[in-house]
Amino acid sequence: MPDIDPWGDVEIGNYKDKMENFGISPISEVEDRMPDNLLIRRGIIFGHRGMKEFTDAREDSEDVAMMTGIMPSGVFHFGHKSVVDQILMYQEMGADITVAAADIEAYNTRDIGFEKSRELVLEEYLKNYVALGLDLDKTDFYFQSEGGNKYHTRSKQFAKHLTQNEVESTYGSAAPGKITSALTQYADILRPQFPERGGPKQTVVPVGVDQDPHIRLTREVARKFRDLEFKKPASTYNKFMRGLQGGKMSSSDPKSYIALTDDVEDAKKKIDQAKTGGQDSLEEHREKGADVSEDMVFELLAFHLIEDDQELERIRQEYSSGEMLSGELKQIAKEKLEEFLLEHQEEREEAEAEIQQFLDENDQRI
Ligand code: TRP
After folding, report:
1. Does the reported pTM lie above 0.90?
2. Which of 3, 17, 83, 366 is the most buried (most CB within 10 A)?
């Protein structure tokens, strides 16, 4: 088996090892050329490929693009939100935004039909993306199944540049459904560079490390393809938030995540039940302080709910010194969460009309 299976479970223990094994570079190399964003400041985005070239192009005022894909599975939760935060960061940087809904991949690897994918993508994902700030008017959003003739033809042509050996050693399998999904994903990643979309340009794909096999092979294909010119796509890698109970955050276990559509009271209950880094007794807690690195409530605050570094640092210090109790930390989280969810859920309602209009205008593209 390969070390990373893009269709398998995502729990990536040691990011450092993965970086060394695969030749992912530390984000610190380009940090000062990226926007001031908490994902970067807090090491949530930890690695990259090809971002020197991307930032060079941007500083030279060339067109740049950002591309990502949505796997329609289950509800949209805080674990998915970091991807959207990254889209928004690149949107602010002026990149062309492309978002693929991976219905062909879902069909072939997860037995989810097109109808179901459409429903999940629109209701669970796109509505949340727009509510969080994605500007659909400036986004090339499409379903893989409706990606257009040229897109599908190119995805088949890419097969010529892969060997069975390469596929098996990268993915651990050459199952037809996986190969088809992979080739479709290469077409997603290169789509912003299609002639119909303005030709070659630096493109960044923000992903979790589990998607790195696709990035590696797309970079290969981009180099070998002769019929069109492509620049090698760049990528950034973000850490996965852990589940509220510790361990993996999983769409099949509602206790492990807070969905952005969760009822506020249910969401607060999940915080109450979350794993903390507090000590067993009050006495011990006051003496030793909390283990912040094992605290899932603190993780939620750091990833999503506290923007201000000083505020977060103050909490970290008080909590790890034992001055602040887990119950107090949870109280802070519940207040922030309530505020966030109420506002977000209102934004979702407003997003509905915008999405409908977009769909009416763009039913079939390139
Ligand atoms: N395979 C991705 C996932 O499982 C979804 C996806 C499809 C994607 N096309 C993409 C991600 C292009 C990044 C870029 O989540």
Report:
1. yes
2. 83
